[in-house]
Amino acid sequence: MASRGASETSKLRQNMEEQLDRLMQQLQDLEECSYINNFFLYIFFFYCREELEEEEYEETKKETLEQLSEFNESLKKLMSGNMTLVDELGGMQLAIQAAISQAFKTPEVIRLFAKKQPGQLRTRLAEMDRDVMVGKLPRDVYTQQKVEILTALRKLGEKLTTEDEAFLAANASSTLSHFEKVTASLGSEDKIMALASSGVGKTPT
Q: Where would one find coiled-coil regions in this protein (predicted)?
C-alpha cells in the first residue's frame, strides 16, 4: 500500500510539473516578445511586437496568470491536510504564488524554484554574472533575475554569502519583500496555507 501511495504521489507530481512547464512556457514566449533580455534578441523584439500588439500581449499574460491562479487553487485542494503532498508540492506552490503576485517575473527561475533545483539556479546565476560582465545582459535585467534567484535559493534552504544577502536587501522590490515575509519558512503547511489566503496570491489587476 505504501509503495502504491508513493507511486501515485510521484505520478501526481509529474502531472503537476508538466502543467507548470506549459504555463511557464507561455509566460516565457510572452516575455520574449515584450522586452529585450540580451542584445541577441534585438531584431526578434521588433518582429514580435509587430506580431503581438500591446493589448493582445496584456490580455494573453492576464489569461496565463489566471490559469496559474486556477492551478494554484487545484494544488491547495490536493494538499489540504495531506502532509505528504505538502512535502512534495509545497515548493511548487510557493513558486506559483511568486509568479501570480509577480514577485518573480522570470519563467525559468520560477520553474527551477518549483522543481527544487538549487544547483541549476546557481548555474544560471554564474552564467548571468559572466553575461553582465561582457555586456550581453542589461544591468537592470541582471539585478531583477539575481534577486529572484537568491530569494529562491534562500527559500530552498540554501546558504547565501554575506555579499548575496546584502545584494538582496538592497535590491528586493516591495512585492518580493512582502512575499518573503509571508513565506518565512518553506515546507510548513501552515505557512503555505496562510500564503494562499493572503494578498500575495491574488492575480494583479
A: 6-74
Specify the pTM: 0.71
67 in Cβ contact with 23 (< 8 Å):
yes
Cα separations in angstroms, 69 against 12, 49, 96, 125, 185: 18, 27, 8, 28, 21
* Residues 34 and 141 sit within 8 Å (Cβ to Cβ): no
| Residue 122: alpha-carbon gap to chain centroid | 15
The C-alpha atoms of residue 18 and residue 16 are separated, in whole angstroms, by 5
DSSP 39: G
Averaged pLDDT in 10-residue chunks for the chain of 205 residues: 62 81 81 50 48 69 84 81 72 85 89 92 96 94 94 92 94 81 54 45 48
* Grid cell at residue 41: 534578441
Provide the terminal-to-terminal Cα distance of the chain, rounded to the nearest Å. 46
Q: How far is CA 82 from CA 7, 89, 90, 94, 196, in A?
A: 16, 10, 11, 16, 16
Give the pLDDT of residue 53.
63
